[in-house]
Batch of 2 targets.
Target 1
Amino acid sequence: MNPIRLLFALVLAAGAATVLAKSPSVINVEVEAALQKLYKARPGTKGVISRAAGVLVFPAVYKGGVGLGAEYGEGALLEDGRTSGYYNLVSGSVGLQLGGQRRVQVIVFMDPAALARFKASDGWKAGVDGSVVLVEFGASGKADTQQLKQPILGFILGEQGLMVSTSLEGAKITRLQK
């Protein structure tokens, strides 16, 4: 990757972080609304999330790119239905991309050990520090039961705008001091 392009993508993401920084109370309201939206769109997710050790919800992840891409979002980690921390998600990329989108991203830690590793990390990278299985739903609206047995699940909802490539890989998630 060209160092200048990488620097540009990271500066773009850092600028978004400054503009989009939210208070804990705003994040909490948005997290609850995002979960309700997910439950309405995919009712089966409520049962999955109720069995989770922890749920990391990013109610609005903004992604955009023209050759260079960046994404940013802020969210909260819920344990036993309560917020236990605030996090941001940052990613930069280079390649064939054009467009922008806003989406909800939910990472569900089904395994307590996977959650503990996430919480102990100083910046967790999806696909490197933990493999996130994006749950797919069939025509019947039900999820693949084999996917639901994985330690870390991912749900992406409400993509708006035109952008090819849906993945959590490479996104760095860091705890915020809020």
Target 2
Amino acid sequence: MPDEFESINEVLIACVKACGGSKQVGAKLWPEKTVDAAQRHLLACLNEDKPERLSPDQLVLLMRMGHGKGFHEVMEFLAAHLGYSVPLPTDPRDEMAELLRQSNDLRTQLLASSERMERLLQSAAAKAGA
């Protein structure tokens, strides 16, 4: 829960731990660096006494990694400290089901539109031939 963390860095450190540790996370955030260099850079970014910081895109990637591990405390911390209701995480299966439903709806609409266009073309051709 967000109350157990006093700073954003504390909750980010917990997220890194939940995602397998600083070596694994650092390597995903900075694949161009060696594993050890990426780990050192990540640790520096999470150290409040160092100037290094995660970019917004890196923060989002870390949060996505945490979400994949069932760690939602970063989002809960941000919501609590910014005055928002705590969001509910979505299950990727639920999102996939919704996307499939939307896709089927669009397919049905496309089919109905195609049938209407064909009827209109046939009607126009019949009037032109008469």
